[in-house]
Design goal:
The complex is a heterodimer.
Chain A (H helix, E strand, L loop, with lengths): L1 H27 L5 H6 L5 H10 L6 H13 L13 H36 L4 H15 L2 H15 L17 H32 L2 H8 L4 H13 L1 H16 L2 H7 L4 H10 L3 H29 L1 H4 L2
Chain B lengths: L1 H4 L7 H12 L3 H18 L1 H4 L32 H37 L1 H15 L3 H12 L3 H27 L3 H9 L3 H9 L4 H24 L11 H8 L8 H30 L1
Classes of the chains: A mainly alpha, B mainly alpha.
Chain lengths: 313, 290
Amino acid sequence: MLKFFVKRFGYLLLTMLAVSLIIFTINEYSPGQVARKILGPYAEENSVRLLTIQMGLDRPLLVRYVDWLAHILRGDLGKSTLWGADVSSIIWDRLLNTSIIASIAFAIIVPASIIFGVLAGMRESSRLDRSISLASIVTTSVPEFASGVFLQSIFVIWLGLLPGTSPLDPSGGWSIASQLVLPVAVMVLYDLGYVVRMVRASMVETMTRPFIRTAVLKGLDFRKVILKHAIRNAMIGPFTVILLQVNYLLTGVVVVEAVFGFPGFGRMMLDAALNKDIAVIEAGSMFAVFVTVTTQIVGDFGYMLLNPRIRFA
Amino acid sequence: MAVITAGKGQDGVLRGLLKRVALLRESPVGMIGAGLVLFWILVAIFAPLISPYDPNENYMDDYGNWGPSAAFWLGRDNQGRDILSRLIWGSRIVLTVGPIATFCAYVVGCTMGLLAGYYRGWVDVVISRISDIILSFPVIILYLIIISQFGPSAFNIIVAVTFIASPQVSRIVRGLTLELRERDYVAAAKMRGESAVYIMLVEILPNARGPLIVDACLRMGYTTIAIGVLGFLGLGLPPPDPDWGGMVKDTYGMMSSDPHMSLFPCAAISSLVVGFNLLADGLREISMRD
């Protein structure tokens, strides 16, 4: 067990290191010098050169990378050119906002995907299975900006029930809670279908196992077979899939936040990318990868705990 | 000798594809998907014939009345351009950039996956580690970084899709290769003294085509979404050429007065992605039958 953790932790560190090198290289070795990006397109050639020397940007890439890494490790994430503040003072607020909608969406996706997935998978090819499968294909096919537009036309323009933007500021007359409804709805719509299909596939597979047949044949109530025997075994596989949704919800919701003007992590990354705010892009990407690798480790660990065959091996 | 080389992959990719199309008739869901995709392919091919107006021309008469009318069936956008014509021409962009990008991702991904699965050992370790690292980025953030750094263009979108999707393709191909390399016909080919390249491309890859065709179809859907999303975020193709995601971005702020400007492009892209995904589901269903 300890060996497992040490190994996975080493893997996390290695991945982060490789990723940081990739991010640094893409951002700082790409067309257009760093100083030019900071000063903007109208700056004079002379001042660009001056800032380049001042910031030490004329040093070799690898030297600058090590220097940058040392700063990151000390907790100094650099300064944002777009917001004119320390990156660390921006990123945590944004993450907090995103974590609100992410956790609400997660709290809906987990039970909903299990219920729909189990209902669909317990009788393969039944009418219920076909309807749920079809619905999940369709909802995951609609891009987030499109479902955002569809939901807005219904609930904002047509019915007038909800606000069209979510700046998390109640001064517009809409409560904060009402501003969260549509972003969460879009996230759930886009993500739920995929998880449902994973749970369904696992459930279908479980239902063909001999122990289910035995339970049915010995006359056990079908409800009981599903609740007591099937679900427990069918949930081992999808557990990891469900956990990995945290990545999308926490760091991948760029489009949703853009649609609703939501001041979260994704919106911050978009603004930073559009304005070439390198420090924010670098810090944000590192965080995103950190979340991914951590959930992977937690996923592996949970899988081990859930699966007795591995646990007792 | 010829008997054992035959394997399953000798009936040709084309004939296999035709057989699938014939089988697809049994899957209503797959037929709907195929119909939607075919519809947009035809629209893209015949765009010059069916497009009622020039997609980039500003028609300013009856100013302010942008909604659908007898002259402009789907209405006009905020610059007076005919939305129907822009949707029709926009399908050409999605249906050229998308397939090219997916194809490139497949060429790179298949190469990686075949090498990793066939040689195993350190080749596999290196390729799998590189894939893992790329896969540890949230897809959308990776798109943001690449396109914002290298600039929005069709070429850069293709490069970005290839970079992001090829590790995913590689993973699938690797898994299939690991399984197929143990087959008798591979052993026979080795005995005949065929080269590793020949075995990978002629013996293994054609036999992995079933799951790969389904995956390619799904991936076309993802790529279509990616192109749309990049357009919506302002990182798509440069204006004025019609790009479905870009059309939504340009008119999105006018939702409350003119929702039709954003609704129709959203419906277009959604229908195409639904088409790809239903088609993939139908293909998967029939492939499980035989």
